[in-house]
Structures are given as C-alpha cells and as structure tokens.
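User: Working on a comparison across species. This one is DNA-3-methyladenine glycosylase I from Flavobacterium terrae. Can you predict its structure so I can line it up against the others?
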Amino acid sequence: MEKKRCGWCEKDDLYRNYHDEEWGNPVYDDETIFEFLVLETFQAGLSWYTILAKRENFRKAFDNFDYRKVAAYDQAKMETLKEDAGIIRNGLKIKATVTNAQAFIKVQEEFGTFSKYIWGFVGGKPIDNQPKNLKDVAATSEISDKLSKDLKKRGFKFVGSTVVYAHMQATGMVNDHVEDCWKRNQ
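Assistant: Here's the predicted structure for DNA-3-methyladenine glycosylase I from Flavobacterium terrae:
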C-alpha cells in the first residue's frame, strides 16, 4: 500500500525522500542546523525543490557546510562562488551566508550551541500544529516573527519570518505534517 504523504512532496522521489527522511525531524546538532540555514537562505524567492536539486552542489561549494570555514571566506572565495553554475549565483546570498556563519559562531559563543539558542524559542521541543490539510499550514508564526527579528538583531541576513518558519519546519521545530500523512505521529 502506498504511503500517504503531505501533498507538497509528491512531485518525485527527490521530494518524497526528503519528506520521508528529513523534513520535520527534530535537528539538534549545529552542523545540520547551519546546513538548513544556508539552504533556506538561498531558497528565499525560489522554490525549495530548486535548492534541494542543487543540495550536493551547495555542499561541495560551501565546504560541506562547515560554518567555521564559511565564516573565513574572503572576497576572492565569494567571487569564485558567484561563478559556480551548480549553485544559485546570487552575490547577496553568498555574502549573507558568510555573514550568517560569522553570526552563527557569535551565537554559539553566547549560548554554548546554536541549537540551544534556536530551540529556546520553542521551549526545547517541537510545536505540533496538527494541520488537517495543506491549507492549514502557515507560512509564518508569532515565533518565526520573533526569531526572525532576533536573528536580524544579531546580524543575520535573509532571515525573514517566512524563511525562518521554513527552517523551523525543516529542522522539526514545528510539526506541520498533515493529518493523513504517515509521518504525522512518528
């Protein structure tokens, strides 16, 4: 019998596998949180599918999402990235990724881990929104508004409330699997 899934992921196996194996699973390690932050930053204004299809290219281009290395990128490295056809060649997003890596490290220094900081906005455990269908899934929330504002105050770029909410969904800070999705109560 075919698994019932959230309707947005039925485009192909890339999307279905992402949904089944990653989306909405709580992530507490800083490395993976940073990876999703980079990907969500580049997704701003584009489809998530576009980013997912280029994920391995992003991984190679950004040193396996090593935020320590990314934080040290100089102008020459950023110019090289702008020439990389395998990723989204947006200079502002590339610069924002470097800036965000630097801010990420500052948050770690203040809180011990970035995970402790970001999960503090949801009390350390996922918020279950229990959407019945895709129409019930929000694009933002009061918490994503608050987190977005705090990230911006800390120097992060391309972290509007919609981007932040998508990050919260991806990293399992919120559970937005619809009622009849097999992952709903996993």
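For your comparison, note: The chain has one domain: 7-175.

User: Helpful, thanks.
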